[in-house]
Write a structure and sequence with these properties.
single chain; two-stranded antiparallel ribbon; 14 helices
Length: 381
């Protein structure tokens, strides 16, 4: 969608509106000046001079007639209306107000939808809004809210440069973090060490390093050695070769890393599922609308199709690859029917390979390469 035309039309409306407003104000100011001048003249001649009053009023009427304020303002408003109409047409052309034809009728569970919306508010830290929604939906939200209350409490402390709650949380979930290969706990300790050193507490920093860094030695020896080098520059860390450790972006990154790991341990994705679904739908909507229009002209109903006749291009942020569909059987893989990688690099489900492998070797359905079941390896997503 090329929004340049819409933007240009909006800029023309904005420019014309400013000119119209300025012109209208000038006309009103001129009218006010002429009326004030007439009032002063009337006050100066007194009430007995009836003929003079009529003369002053006649002169005022003549000046107002000459100015023609209603005509000038009307002309300005007409010019504004012209560009506004063109902008309205540009909006109608580029933005479809009726998206119902691109929507497929699906029986949604109101309870599940309410749960998704409430969870979205809580995971965004909008607890008051989430509570209000839960009350209106007559749904219990305590179990949805509790995990994110703790998470946002720790995030607020991180913003205030207090890592104690985060360190306590990391220690409590140490085994789970290690199983995931996460180095979040070490990053917290690293940041705490640098913060102590930057505050001039060199002795405390040394003691802190002795009590905490030993357990991280096998995995983070290079980072620890660099932190120990900071001790030589304790009083002038800003001008040292390690000044990058003081960048405020480290706090932003650690907050994002904590949010990602916390959501993962809660069984939640880093991004809100509601946000992902709506964002993906916005990207797919123009294609769906165009497809629905084309099929309607052919007197076909796209909602009855089992598979879309066009491919929906989405951004990389929406490509998760959590499910594999076999290109031969068009069935999703399962633990009993896992995806198998052939030597040529193509992937099929196990049952499809077994059907192809009636003999010892078989030819790949996508290239001339031959392989056997024993040469294929199971893939894990």
């Amino acid at each position: 969608m090329d929004l340049a035309i819409v933007r240009e039309a909006f800029d023309r409306v904005s420019k014309k509106q400013k000119l119209s407003d300025s012109k209208t104000r000038d006309i009103i100011d001129t009218l006010a000046h002429e009326i004030d001048l007439a009032l002063k003249n009337l006050e100066s001649i007194g009430e007995d001079s009836g003929s003079d009053q009529k003369t002053i009023l006649a002169e005022l009427y003549a000046k107002l007639s000459e100015l023609e304020p209603s005509v000038q303002i009307g002309t300005s408003q007409k010019e504004l209306h012209v560009v506004l109409s063109k902008y309205d047409k540009a909006l109608d052309k580029f933005f479809c107000t009726d998206i119902a034809k691109a929507c497929k009728e699906v029986d949604f569970s109101a309870e599940i939808i309410n749960q998704i919306i409430a969870s979205h508010f809580y995971r965004q830290g909008r607890f008051d809004l989430g509570d209000c929604f839960v009350d209106d939906a007559d749904k219990a939200g305590a179990e949805l809210k509790a995990p994110f209350v703790d998470m946002y409490h720790i995030l607020e402390q991180i913003k205030d440069r207090n890592l104690e709650p985060a360190l306590t949380w990391a220690k409590l979930h140490r085994e789970e973090l290690l199983q995931k290969g996460s180095s979040l706990e070490f990053k917290f300790h690293q940041l705490q060490f640098v913060q102590l050193l930057n505050k001039g507490k060199r002795s405390e920093a040394i003691q802190y390093a002795r009590s905490t860094f030993g357990q991280f030695g096998p995995r983070h020896i290079a980072e620890i050695q660099r932190l120990m080098g900071c001790l030589l520059w304790a009083d002038r860390l800003e001008t040292s070769p390690y000044s990058d450790l003081l960048l405020p972006t480290h706090w932003e990154v650690i907050a994002m890393d904590f949010t990602r790991e916390c959501c993962s341990l809660l069984g939640q994705s880093y991004e809100s599922p509601l946000h992902v679904a709506i964002s993906a739908g916005i990207q797919a909507l123009p294609t769906l609308l165009k497809m629905a229009t084309v099929l309607a002209n052919k007197k076909q109903e796209w909602q009855t199709l089992k598979q879309l006749p066009v491919e929906i291009e989405l951004g990389k942020e929406f490509q998760f690859h959590s499910i594999f569909a076999c290109p031969v059987s068009r069935e999703q893989s399962t633990p009993e029917n896992p995806p198998m990688l052939m030597p040529c690099g193509h992937v099929l489900c196990k049952l499809s390979l077994q059907k192809l492998a009636k003999s010892r070797s078989f030819k790949c359905p996508y290239c001339p390469a031959e392989s056997s079941i024993s040469q294929c390896k199971q893939l894990y997503f």
